[in-house]
Design goal:
By secondary structure, the protein is an alpha/beta fold. About 35% of the residues lie in helices and about 25% in strands. It starts with a helix and ends with a helix.
Length: about 425
């Protein structure tokens, strides 16, 4: 806007060269002063991000960013930018906002909808301000360190188990039938006709010289362990799932939901992660700290391209879990080799612990003639293949039940319901 008129003035009126030079000089001085002003205004800018921000996968949350600015920028417009990773699911990496008057700090909420669990790091932040005359844009960059922790979303799994999570412990009295007899010792009393002879305490009877009976009560606190397989088979996608999840993602949601369910029912739940070896072991416990420890262990878990070693797993369980407990397995033993290895290795703990292993199936695995006949020849062969696979799983189910292992056929996306069904059956019948 200055050079073009000055050049035209010198071209047509040569004796006004000094006027044109003065215009160019004045424009240059104004531009330099404006540039110095924007540098002065952007120098005091500073970012403050929380060290850790927690999100749930697939749920919208906010990342709070605090910007400290000088008085010269009060009421002005600025543009903020963060190097958010694609997994954070932010609608835009840049935001325009107006800074409030009579304040030295402003808080900006960054809306994010994470699409992948894990820990995502933010390393840099930037702010762009405009010079007073609008000739320059000053950018202030700052190195930051903020971690976005994206945990699995458990709302869908909890809705599947609504009767457990909607229970209110102190609202009225409920009568519940408990099958079987408890195994937790309560007291001694005199023998009453009709008492089981196996419950007589013979040492107390010898001391007092009349029959004494042992009285038992139902176990108030039981122990359960969720045993999660992180081997190569867990990296397969869940068939028919609309959220593009892997089997491991489903396992993690199921494990965390079972920890919450056990706590709600007054039991203690532990966690075992394995593939070729045992990766992590959390002893059975309850409470918010224990759940946070389980969640922080699982949200970073990834599959390993190795085959599961059941012999190593059951040897570890035999030595590290002395008290009788319910072991809920999240693994695949649908192939003959894995099934044989599981059956052989499980002998180490079958007399001491109680095992529950759901056999997860796909959509096509079903008995023949259980759905309308197919229209094509390929559909006929697919139905026969699904029937043969279902028959093999039923044979494996019978073998597991003969060994005393609780099992049932269940689709992979219903893993939580299947395991909780076994857990509630064991708890109601006092099998531990």
């Amino acid at each position: 806007m200055t050079l073009l008129p000055a050049a035209l003035l010198v071209t047509f009126v040569p004796h006004l060269l000094w006027v044109a030079g003065g215009l160019v000089l004045i424009a240059g001085v104004i531009g330099v002063l404006d540039m110095d002003a924007v540098r002065t205004r952007s120098a005091p800018l500073a970012f403050a991000l929380p060290e850790v921000t927690n999100f749930s996968c697939g749920c919208t949350g906010e990342l709070k960013v605090v910007l400290a600015y000088p008085a010269a920028l009060q009421g002005g417009m600025v543009r903020l930018a963060l190097d958010l990773p694609p997994e954070a699911g932010a609608e835009d990496t840049m935001l325009e906002c107006r800074l409030p008057m009579d304040a030295e700090q402003a808080q900006v909420a960054w809306s994010c909808r994470p699409v992948k669990r894990g820990a995502h790091l933010i390393r840099h932040a930037a702010c762009e301000v405009t010079s007073p005359l609008g000739l320059w844009h000053g950018v202030r960059r700052q190195a930051v360190r903020s971690v976005l922790r994206v945990y699995p979303d458990l709302r869908g799994e909890q809705r599947k188990l609504a009767p457990i999570f909607l229970r209110r412990a102190n609202l009225g009295t409920h009568i519940c039938r408990v099958a079987g007899k408890g195994r937790e010792f309560e007291k001694l009393r005199e023998y009453v006709p009709g008492d089981d002879l196996g419950d007589i305490h013979w040492k107390a009877t010898a001391r007092r010289r009349f029959p004494i009976t042992k009285i038992f009560q139902a176990e108030r606190t039981q122990e359960a362990y969720v045993i999660l397989d992180a081997s190569r088979l867990s990296g397969r996608p869940v068939e028919g799932d609309t959220e593009d999840r892997t089997v491991l993602d489903q396992y993690i949601q199921t494990a965390l939901t079972l920890v919450l369910a056990a706590e709600r029912l007054g039991d203690r739940c532990g966690l075992v992660i394995f593939h070729r070896t045992v990766v992590r072991f959390l002893p059975a416990d309850s409470g918010k700290q224990h759940f946070d420890a389980c969640r922080n262990t699982l949200y970073l878990l990834q599959t390993e391209t190795v085959a599961p070693d059941f012999q190593e797993l059951f040897a570890f369980l035999r030595t590290r879990i002395p008290k009788r407990a319910l072991m809920l397995f999240l693994t695949h033993i649908d192939s003959p080799a894995l099934a044989e290895a599981f059956l052989e290795a499980s002998r180490l703990v079958l007399r001491q612990h109680l095992l529950a292993v759901p056999l997860f199936t796909s959509h096509d695995v079903r008995p023949l003639f259980s759905k309308p006949p197919p229209d094509t020849l390929d559909g006929v062969f697919a139905d026969f293949a699904g029937h043969l696979y279902w028959r093999n799983l039923k044979a494996l189910e019978r073998q597991l039940r003969v060994r005393g292992v609780h099992t049932s056929l269940a689709p992979a996306h219903k893993a939580t319901s299947a395991l909780c069904s076994h857990y509630l059956t064991v708890k109601g019948r006092q099998l531990l």
